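About this split. The held-out portion is used to measure sequence recovery: a designer receives only the structure tokens and must propose an amino acid at every position. Recovery is the fraction of positions where the proposal matches the reference. Here is one held-out target exactly as it appears in the evaluation file.
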């Protein structure tokens, strides 16, 4: 079954994926009132259902976990019902879809928080990054450090959000442990100067990510739980003084928890793959289940990495925006369309659901 070609089926835990191409999570900021994903989202995901696995845009697990305008949640009944339309549309086309669970931590703005309260973080250190709020980009707000007794509530929010995702019909969930958001902030010492059980040592800084993973896997099953990590990415202003030791340890523990995949952003998110020295093969060796590779892959690199056994699945992000039929285009070596950067974040169907498949585009 697990034929070594990108376009053959692959067994991911209990699921059979039709190929080894994954659609990476992509933030598109088109949720409606109450942060509910609407019919356009269902259409957008169903248009891309020929990917072996779709990973949804990041969905906040709570109001506190939101960091950008108009991103969808997974903590209310209306949000669950909205997402169900997307999962049903994807399943009707034979696709598989995981929901990405997100708490942004300090990458937020008072105007996005309930009653204008300040965002939360491992430590009261402001991130050098911007967010999309009030229809423009603005510096993130100064955060406050989470109290020790608030952390169990965040674990519970992740667990409940995972249960909600399953109620909405998702095939599983991906915990967002990457790109400088809450769990990555805890893991990396540039953002975490705590002196309690959640700061200091490699083990302590990994603790929240691992508690969340254990709780989610306990709720919905390890074989439906994945996680995304970005060991060396400086995304959203994080830094780690010893990423190899930190992420070797994290991946050893994730392996023990038995979750179905690790999804690894190799290098700087959306940027250079060689941003810092790091042995990704070490993570591959430490993890016995599925390794999803991401960042700057094209057909050639994915094909060679698969042949070398360096990864099982390959996540493409930006190429899926303007190429809903990306799998077919890669398979037939058809040209790829470029997306319009002006319609990436927010708006309606323009630049979202109106990119045609190759067979329907102007060459035909
Ligand atoms: C781009 C814009 C906003 C959020 C990530 C969820 O980097 C994101 C994101 C990307 O993981």
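Reference sequence for scoring:
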């Amino acid at each position: 079954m697990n034929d070594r070609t990108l376009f053959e089926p692959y067994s991911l835990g209990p699921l059979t994926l039709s190929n080894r191409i994954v659609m990476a999570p992509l933030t598109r900021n088109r949720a409606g009132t109450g942060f509910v994903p609407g019919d356009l989202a269902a259409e957008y995901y169903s248009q891309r259902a020929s990917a072996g696995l779709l990973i949804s845009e990041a969905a906040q697990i709570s109001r506190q976990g939101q960091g950008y305008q108009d991103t969808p949640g997974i903590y209310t009944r209306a949000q669950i019902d909205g997402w169900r339309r997307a999962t049903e549309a994807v399943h009707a086309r034979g696709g598989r879809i995981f929901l990405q669970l997100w708490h942004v931590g300090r990458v937020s703005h008072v105007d996005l928080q309930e009653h204008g309260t300040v965002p939360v973080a491992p430590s009261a250190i402001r991130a050098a990054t911007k967010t999309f709020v009030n229809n423009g980009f603005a510096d993130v707000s100064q955060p406050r450090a989470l109290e020790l007794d608030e952390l169990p509530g965040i674990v519970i929010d992740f667990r409940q959000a995972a249960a909600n995702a399953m109620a909405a019909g998702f095939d599983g969930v991906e915990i967002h442990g990457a790109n400088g958001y809450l769990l990555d902030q805890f893991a990396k010492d540039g953002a975490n100067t705590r002196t309690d059980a959640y700061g200091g040592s490699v083990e302590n800084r990994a603790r929240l990510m691992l508690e969340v993973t254990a709780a989610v896997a306990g709720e919905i099953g390890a074989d439906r739980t994945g996680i995304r990590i970005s060991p060396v990415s400086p995304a959203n202003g994080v830094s780690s003084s010893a990423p190899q030791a930190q992420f070797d340890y994290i991946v050893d523990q994730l392996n023990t928890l038995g979750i179905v995949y690790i999804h690894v952003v190799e290098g700087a998110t959306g940027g250079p793959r060689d941003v810092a020295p790091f042995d990704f093969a070490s993570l591959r060796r430490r993890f016995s289940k599925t390794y999803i590779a991401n960042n700057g892959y094209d057909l050639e690199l994915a094909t060679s990495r698969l042949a070398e056994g360096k990864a099982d699945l390959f996540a493409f992000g930006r190429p899926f925006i303007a190429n809903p039929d990306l799998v077919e285009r890669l398979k037939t070596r058809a040209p790829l369309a470029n997306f319009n950067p002006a319609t990436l974040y927010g708006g309606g169907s323009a630049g979202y659901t109106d990119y045609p498949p190759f067979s329907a585009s102007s060459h035909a």
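Annotator remark: DSSP finds ten helices and 14 strands in the chain.
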